[in-house]
Amino acid sequence: MSRSVEVLLGPPWSSDTVRGADVVVVDVLRATTTIATALANGAAGVIPVAEPEDAIALGNRLGRDRVLLCGERHSLRIEGFDLDNSPASFTPQAVEGKTLLITTTNGTRALRAVATAASVRTAALVNRTAVADALVHENGDIVIVCAGEGNGFALEDALGAGALVDTLLTLIGDVELCDGARAAALLYRAVAARLTDAVASADHAQSLAQKGFARDVTRCAALDTLQVVPTLRDGILVAG
């Protein structure tokens, strides 16, 4: 029996659509790129939380010597937090062995919206093939959730989702694409030869560049630089 693949191109996300599915959350700029980078560099786990005060409270309960408070609002590090949301900040020296508590404007909100899924992973362009490989070994329908920007569509997330769909078609073959997945794959294929430029043209990418994060945009647009598959287990993203 073939598996279906759907892409939810932006919020709001229906809990009925993700219920019982194998879900992948995509926030290319920058949360899911940063999560993958952190786990690849030795972080013990990443706990997504809704608000800065939630991170502070959980950090106090777990012990501040064991955790790092990470996240952004308006793309900048939250006052009093250890790290921002730039993948460049999550070096082995900074994160190895630590549990990271992260809150971001869009990515962690999407992660917290998929609680009814059978499984949850995060993907970005940097670990596209690794996540696709992991999904091959599941049996359920696949729903890719784009974090989006604000309450709407984000070009870079649609491209990340499309890149994942394109690889799934190669690896699984017998899949049924829903319209969202078909649209994302077509969009990705249209710009695959100039992917970095396409990501850099997105509204959020231009905003990041204006704030001094142009190198983040380039880094987040690179395909398959990481092999880690962040997987949600008991509320913690770990290297799957």
Describe what you observe in this structure.
This protein has 240 residues and is α/β, with parallel strands linked by helices. It has a single domain, classed as putative 2-phosphosulfolactate phosphatase, CATH 3.90.1560. It is built from 11 helices and 11 strands. The longest helix has 17 residues. The chain starts with a strand and ends with a strand.
Briefly, what CATH class?
Alpha Beta
> What strand order characterises the main sheet?
7-2-8-1-9
Could you tell me the number of beta strands?
11
Domain module tally? 1
Helical stretch count?
A: 11
Which sheet architecture does the biggest sheet show?
5 strands, parallel
The arrangement of helices and strands along the chain is EHEHEHEEHEHEHEHEHHHHEE
Label the CATH architecture. Answer: Alpha-Beta Complex
Structural class by SSE content: alpha/beta
Q: What is the residue-averaged pLDDT? A: 96
What is the terminal separation in angstroms? Answer: 26 Å
Helix content: 25-40%
Instruction: List segments where confidence is low: pLDDT < 50 over at least 5 consecutive residues.
Output: none
- What is the percentage of strand-forming residues? 15-25%
| Named CATH topology | putative 2-phosphosulfolactate phosphatase
What is the CATH superfamily label? ComB-like
Form type: globular
Summed up:
The protein has eleven helices and eleven strands.
Supply database-style keywords.
putative 2-phosphosulfolactate phosphatase, 40% helix, 5-stranded parallel beta sheet, 4-stranded mixed beta sheet, 240 residues, 11 strands, globular, alpha/beta
